[in-house]
Design goal:
It is a single chain. This protein has eight helices and 17 strands. By secondary structure, it is an alpha+beta fold. The strands form two sheets. Strands 8, 9, 10, 11, 12, 13, 14, 15 and 16 form a nine-stranded mixed beta sheet that branches. Strands 1, 2, 3, 4, 5, 6, 7 and 17 form an eight-stranded antiparallel beta sheet that branches. The longest helix has 15 residues. It is globular, with a radius of gyration of 19 Å. It starts with 11 loop residues before the first strand and ends with a strand.
Length: about 300
């Protein structure tokens, strides 16, 4: 099944405990979250392995999904176990055989239309799937992305709830991405309100220099699950990792840089603001960590098989 945009969609959508298909999954124009942006979602990937499809770090994603709902005061009417089962069954019914992207989504439905939704608004929960390849494009994945620092800033710690994967907070990332895409770049990089490097429009960022791997601390950025995975893999390989603020000029002079995220996976960065990063090609540390990551998600490293939920 394909959408109007040509995206290949999974056959089944789980919606409030019932099954429907993508074409029939429609909402009211009076949906509260459509007007005011209060909702939460997850991005999860399922990979093809030798023994069948497997979802990467499903419990961690579901836990973050519930954390987001708690932060936003959305009372999700299901348990984590029920959502895990629903996600697994949605993939099974999707008809997508080579792995897929999974999107659990929670939002406020057709209820009071004002900023105040009431203390017991209707809560909608849906799970859908589609095929999503290289997030920033095949060339960026293979050769490294060209990125530019946006004029838009990532919100301060108490500006938006940065630990929630909040639908409304992505408007800043959208504006940043539109800005730099018009200039011909692959992705935007946002600084925080103090001028330090924060993250991409939808990815965490790492830099490497002089044997040290550094990434933005969890202040105003989302706690990425791929980010946590790469930190653990690097430490297992004896690579020192530091979670610390760094500046744009520190990024300019890095030997290597890369993005991480469920959609982006591990994407090298070859250029920032028209300055080459290192040699202008994916570096050895980046390539090594990327290979280790794909060995895990595609089931070639039994040491981390606990991170895979088989379908």
């Amino acid at each position: 099944m394909s959408s109007k945009s040509g995206r290949q969609l999974g056959k089944a959508v789980w919606w409030n405990g019932k099954w429907t298909n993508s074409e029939d999954a429609k909402i009211s124009l009076f949906t509260h979250s459509l007007h005011y942006g209060l909702g939460a979602f997850e991005g999860i990937r399922c990979y093809k392995t030798k023994t069948g499809q497997a979802i990467f770090r499903l419990p961690e994603h579901t836990r973050r999904f519930f954390d987001s709902c708690k932060i936003l005061e959305i009372k999700i009417p299901y348990t984590e176990k029920q959502i895990n089962q629903a996600i697994t069954e949605t993939v099974r019914r999707s008809g997508l055989k080579s792995g897929c992207y999974i999107r659990p989504l929670v939002f406020l439905g057709d209820g009071p239309l004002g900023v105040f939704p009431g203390f017991d608004p209707p809560v909608e929960v849906a799970i859908m799937t589609w095929v999503w390849g290289a997030y920033l494009g095949a060339e960026a994945k293979a050769k490294g992305a060209r990125i530019k620092i946006s004029s838009f800033s990532r919100g301060a710690v108490n500006h938006t709830m940065s630990k929630a994967k909040l639908t409304g907070s992505y408007s800043t990332g959208i504006l940043a991405k539109l800005e730099v895409k018009r200039m011909g770049y692959d992705e935007a990089l946002l600084l925080d309100t103090d001028g330090f490097v924060a993250e991409g429009s939808g990815e965490n960022i790492f830099i490497y220099r002089d044997g040290l791997l550094k990434t933005t601390p969890l202040t105003s950025v989302l706690p990425g699950i791929t980010r946590a995975t790469i930190i653990q893999l690097a430490q297992a390989e004896g690579i020192p990792v530091q979670e610390a603020r760094f500046t744009r000029d520190e990024l300019y002079t890095a030997e290597e840089a890369f993005f991480t995220g469920t959609a982006a996976e591990v994407t090298p960065i070859r250029e920032v603001d028209d300055r080459k990063i290192g040699s202008g090609k994916p570096g050895e540390i980046t390539k090594s960590l990327s290979k280790k990551f794909f060995d895990i998600v595609e089931g070639r490293n039994p040491k981390y098989s606990k991170w895979l939920t088989k379908i």
